[in-house]
Amino acid sequence: MSVYVITGASKGIGFGFVKNISEDPRNLVVGLVRDVTGTVEKVTAELGDRSNVHILHGDLTKYVSLQQAAADTAKIVGERGIDYLIANGAFMSQFDAYDNICTLADKHEELDDVASKQFKTNVTGNIHFFKFFHPLVMKGKIKKVIAISSGHGDLEWVNNYEIEPAAIYAASKAALNIVVAKFSAQYKKDGVLFFSISPGAVEVGHYDKPTPEQMEGLKLFMERVQAYAPHFKGAVPVEQAVRTVKALWERASIETGYAGAFVSQSGDRQWM
User: Pick the catalytic residue: 169, 172, 184, 258?
Assistant: First the structure.
C-alpha cells in the first residue's frame, strides 16, 4: 500500500490521478481542493463509495489553508506518512493561452492580475505546500515529491521553435522547476526524490471555444508544434496521461538521475 497526497484533485488530470490510484483499495489517497463539497459529490457520483479516498480543503493561494491541510492529512495518514506527494494544482488562464507577450503587455492591468495569480498559485503556493508536507514525506517509505509542470517552461523549446503563447504560464512553470530543483538540492541527501514532470498535451478542455482572433494564435502554435513533433496527433485523454505519468514516477529514482530533474512524461525532453 502507498499513501498519496494530490493537489488540484477536483478535475482534469488531478481527478484522474485520484480515480486511477484509488482503484487499488490498498492505496490511501488524500485530495486537496478548494471546493470540498463539490468534489466529494463528484467522487461519490463517479467513483462510488471508496473509503480510501479523503478530500480535504487546501488552497495553494492561502498559507494558513495549506498549514491546516497538512495537519488534517497527518491525522489521516498517521505514522505511515506520505509516499507520493503530487503537486498537480495550478492556475491556468485563457488570458495568455493564445497571444504573444507584447499583445498581453498591451493589457497591462489584466497582465498584472493574471501574473500575480499564476505565481502565487504555481510557484509560492507550491513552496508552502512542499514545506508543510515534507515532514510527512520523511515518514513515508518511498519519499517521492512530483511537480506536474509543462513543456512551456523549457527555454530550448521556446527558443528553437519560437513558441509565443502562454508566456505568463510558461514563466510560472519554469520558476516551479527551479523551486523543485532547490528542494532537491536540500533534501536529496535525505533520500527524498523531488522532480518535475510535464504530462504532455492532455485533453482537459483548455482550448475550447476560442474566438476567431484566438484561433489565429492557436493555428500558429500548432504549426510550430508540428514542426517540432511531426508525429503529434493531438492531446491524449486524461486516463492515458495518468497511466504514463504514474509509470514514470514509479520507476524514477535518485540513483537513475531524476533528482531535481525536469522531464517529459516519457522521462526525456520530448514534450510532445
Answer: 169
> Rounded to an integer, what distance in angstroms lies between the CA atom of residue 180 and that of residue 248?
17
Phi and psi at residue 197, in whole multiples of 5°? -125, 130
- Choosing from 2, 10, 149, 150, the catalytic residue is 150
Tell me which DSSP letter residue 202 carries: B
Catalytic, 169? Answer: yes
Is 209 catalytic? The answer is no
Residues 133, 82 contacting (CB under 8 angstroms)? yes
Count other C-beta atoms under 10 Å from residue 140's C-beta: 20
**Alpha carbons 39 and 202: distance in angstroms, whole number:** 21
Residue-level pLDDT at 212: 83
Write down the catalytic residue from 42, 143, 144, 173. 173
Residue 160, SS3?
helix
Predicted confidence (pLDDT) per residue in 219-228, tens digit: 889 999 999 9
pTM assigned to the model: 0.95
pLDDT tens for each residue of 183-224: 999 999 999 999 999 999 998 876 777 888 888 888 889 999
Radius of gyration of the chain (CA): 18
In angstroms, the Cα distances linking 76 to 9, 18, 98, 231 are 17, 16, 42, 45
Contact criterion met (CB below 8 Å) for 7 and 87: yes
